[in-house]
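User: Continuing from earlier, I have the next pair ready.

Assistant: Great, send them over.

User: Here they are, in order.

Assistant: Folding the first of the pair now:
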Amino acid sequence: MKTQDLQALNNFDFLARSFARMYALGEPVDIGAVTGNMNAEQKAWFRARYEHYRKQAERARVLEVQ
C-alpha cells in the first residue's frame, strides 16, 4: 500500500473516532453528510470504523457515569 493511502486511512480513522466521541457526548452527528463525498468503499469502511468507535465511546461513557 502506498504511503499516501496509509495516511488517508489514518486520517479517516481519526475522523471516525472523533465523530464517535462527539456523538457519545451528545453532539449531533450527521454521518451521511460526513461521508457524502466518499466513494462506496470509503463510506463502508468509514461507517464500520465509526460504529466501532461509537459503541466503544458509549460503553466508556456509561462506565464514567457509574
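And the other member of the pair:
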Amino acid sequence: MTPHNEAAAGDYAPTVLLSGDPLRSEWIAETFLEDARCVNRIRGALGYTGSYQGMPVSVQTTGIGIPSLSIYVHELLETYGARVLFRVGTCGGLQDHVRIRDLVISQAAATDSGAEGESFGAYRFAPAPDLGLLSAAAEEARKSGVRHHIGSTASSDVFYHSAGDERYRPLRAHGLLAVDMETSGLYTLASRFGARALSICMGVDNVFTGESIAEAERQAVFRPMIELALATACGVS
C-alpha cells in the first residue's frame, strides 16, 4: 500500500497496461481480462488485475502527464514488483502521414519536461523502450495488418502552450512522428528500475492537418491498440 494506491502486495501482475483515463482502464479490464477485480480506487486512479489467455495482466490508470504517470509507475516498479509496462494511450500526429486511428510505437521519446531536474547532470538522457518489446510489437503489428508507424516521438508537459502548435515545427522537421504527455517519463523510469517498457499510442488528432476523432468515438476505436499490447505481452512472456 502507498499514499496513492490501496492495493496489497501481490495484487498487481508483473505485466501492466497503463492508461491515462480511468474509464479506459475500466473498459480494458471488462473487455479483455478474465476474472478482473478492482485493486485500487484511490483518487479515481482505477487499477485492475485479471488474466488474458491465461497470463496474469493488470491495468493501471496514470492520469495525464509525466508527473502523474511517474507516481504510479514508480510505485508499480518499486512497491508492487511490476516488470513489463505498456502505455496504451493517445497522441497527436506531427507528420501528415500519421493519420487518426493509426498506431504509433515509440522507439525514442524526446521531452520538454523538467520532471527529472538535475538527475542526469550535464547530460540529456535519451529515453528509449525495451528492444525486445519494440521488436515483438513491430512483428505483431505487421502480422495483424493494423496501420502503424514506428519512430521517435515527443512528450510535452504542456497541453495549452502560449506558442500554440508552432512549437512543434522543429520536431516535425526532424521527423518525429507524434506528441503525447507521458512516454518519455515511462521510458526513463523503466530504465532506472531495470524494467521493460513500450509505448503504443493511437493517433486521435493531427497537429498540422487538423484531423481529429470525436471524443465520443474514442473508446470504440482503441481495440487494435489494446490487442497489439496484449499480443506483444503474450509473445514475450
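Worth noting for the second one:
Residues 15-236 form a domain with the Rossmann fold fold (CATH 3.40.50.1580). The chain is about 30% helix and 30% strand.
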